[in-house]
Design brief:
By secondary structure, the chain is mainly β. 0% of the residues lie in helices and 41% in strands. It has 4 domains: 48 residues, no CATH class; 95 residues, Immunoglobulin-like; 93 residues, Sandwich (Immunoglobulin-like); 96 residues, no CATH class. Strands 14, 16, 18, 20, 21 and 22 form a 6-stranded mixed β-sheet that branches.
Amino acid sequence: MSLPPNSPYSVITPTSATTDGSGVATFTVTGKMAETVICTAATAGPTVLTATATVDFIQLTADETRSTVSAEPTAVPADGTATATITVTLRNVDGVTVSGKGATLTASGVSSTIPPPSGPSDINGVVTFTVKDTTVEGPLTYTATDETDGVTVTQTVQVTFTAIPDPSASTVTADPTAVVADGVATATITVTVAKAGGARIPGLSVSMAANGGNSSTISPVAATTDGSGVATFTVSDSAPEGVTHTATAGDVPIEQTAQVTFTAPPSGGGGTGRGGTAAAPSSRTTTSAPTTAGTVGSAGSTLTTTDGMFTLTMPAGALTGNATLAVTEATGAPAGLPQGLTAASPTFTLTGATLGTPQRVSPGRLSVYAMNSDGTWTLLPTTVNAAR
C-alpha cells in the first residue's frame, strides 16, 4: 500500500501484508496534519489489481489549558536589538499537538515590538515569535491566542527589558587568581553587571567564555544576575596554563576580563588548590648543604645545586640587571607558608641582591613563592625543576 508523495505527514503500517484465509490484508493509516489522503493498494502476481481508499484527517482544536507558552531568555537589554524568543505550543485536550493553526501574541506593555509569527503551527504544534523593546520595562506579560479556533492559551510568560549594560562599568573578577590544575580545584569568576553610572542590573543573562586553545571547564556557561546584578561561575582545568575569561551580559561584551593561572600539581601526587598539600617529604638525607652561586642578567640563566637536586631557571627578562644569586639547601621549613601548603624536604633558600628577603622553595611543589614585606606570599612565574 502507498500514499501519494504530497502526504509526508501520514504513515501506513505495515507497507505490505499477506492476505489471510479470507483474502483480507489489514493496514493502519495515521496522520499528523489535517489533510485528505488517498491510499493505494496493489496486488502482486500475474494479474495486478489496484484499489484506493480516501481518508480525511480532520483538524484538531487547541485546548487552552493543555497548550503552553515559554520564553528564552526571560530578560534582555532594552536596546531595540536584543530579542527573546517566545514559543507557543498548541495541544488538544488529549495533549496531542495541533498543526495548521494561526496564532497571535499580545503584550501587557505598549513599547514591546512583536514581529509576525513564524507561520501557522507546524507539525509539532509550534509557533515562534521574537520580541524586543527600546524601553526599560517589565516584567511584561505575553498572551498567546489560537485565532483559528478562537482559543486563548491560559499559560502566559513574562519578559523583562533591562537597562543596557555599560561595558566599562561592569566588572569581571577571579578569586583566587591561581589554582592547581588538577581538574578539581576551582576559582570563582564573579561578574557584576551595571549600567552607565554604576547602578546594578538584576535579572540579566550572562554568558562566560575562555580564550581559545585551553582545556578549562566553566560551570555554568550561562547564569542570570541576582538582585544585586551579580552572576557567578566556577572554573577548573586539568592542564597547567594561563586562561583569560570573558563575559557577555545580554548581547554586550564586558571590557574587563579575568585571568586565572592553573599551576602544575605537586609532583608527589598532590594538591587541591587553596586547601592543597605539598608533596610528601623526600627521604633524601645529606651531610652537607650543596650551594651554587652565579651572576644572572636580563638574558636569563640557570643555577643548579652541586648535587643536581635543584635547578632554578630565570627566563630572559626576569631581571632588569645583573644580580648575584645563591641557592643553598635549608635546614628547616620556612615559616608562614601560604594557607594549606606544607614544605617538602629538602627545601632551599634563594638569595640575591635584588630579591630582598631570602625565599625558600620546595622542589616537590615545583613552584616559587616570594614573601612580600607585609608577610603575604606571591606565586612567581619561575620554572623549578627538581630531581627526585
